[in-house]
Amino acid sequence: MSFLTRKYLYSASDSKGLIKSGVITCKNKLEAEQILIQQGLIAESLKLDLTFSLSSLSEKKDLEKIINSLADLLESGLSITAALEYMVLNSTNSIRKKTQGIKEGLESGQRFSETIQNNFKYIEEFYILLIESAEKTGDLLKCFKNISLIINKNNEFRSNFIASLIYPTFLLIIIGAVVGFIMSFSLPQIISQFDTSETVPLPTKIIMGVYKYEKFFLPAIFIVLLLVFLLKLMLKIQIVKKIFDGIVVHSPILKKIYFFLIQRKYLQILSFSLQGGISLEESLVLTSRVSDNYYFQNYISNARDDIANGIRFSQAVSPLPFLSQEQKFIITIADESSNLTDAFTKLYQKNELSNERSLKLFNKMLEPIIIIVLGAIVLLLALGIILPSLQLSQGINVL
How far is CA 243 from CA 26, 274, 288, in A? Predict the structure, then answer.
């Protein structure tokens, strides 16, 4: 059994003989077939999607625009049909084509969730389940608002994370450019003036040592990039993936970053799925896909199995390592009072605020560290060049 999460492109027929296509994210082909059977579909074609297509990014942007527009138009009082007609007439080409496909699907008798799934091949199963649940309750407006909020929150989180790295990255590029210029043009002329037969200061020795091995820097970078590429290919092998996952779990820094990302996704799925009327069992199935790490998948899978065997939800999730003790305590109280939906909503909102503060703090801490590193490099270069000159001048004065 593979512990990788993969995407499978499928073409399947339903009970009426209608052909549907889409993408399923799961561990292996057998699980993909079982998921289709649970949805009342018989697989006609099932292929592993090995490509990373820019069309998937474009599709996500189109989905975001359509959902945001539908939420605004339905809130203004338009029906779903009128909203789609308006969007067909007043949208860009890509949005118009997708909207027209959704409209035609509804007119042919398909449910809204089916038309969305047929027109958006890379849509997350989470969104489909939210829409299906909303169709049962008849509250599509709330569903569109929730999906729009999820997408906006994810975009905001991604933007904040990238923004926190822009300035430090810029400083690192400046450091690299300055050091590279000095090493390539200035340093050779300066080192040629040193008398290596005499004792030179430690900073000068360091500079001369770095210069001596400068020619190996580019090959070393190439080898590192090659190793990263080979590692990516080897991660397709089960045993290698398991070893790598173990390294992530036992590495303090990598584990903390992984916990940070998984905790957010886990709380988001449970919060919005329970709000949207998705059952706890289905919500837990969705949480199993927040990570493809073998050990984390085991944690989540064991929690889901424990709940299915009658163990209380709070007891089942207590072993999850990425939830804090405070979060587990709140979940225990909410479980006893049968108020898990509100509890996960508040936990997610609080976690988002905490993440924003953490990213800002990370940015504030990283900037001075990089500046100190830059200052240390400049100081090393200055001392390495100035100290030999001072020694030489002192020797001349003695003579």
Answer: 21, 35, 20
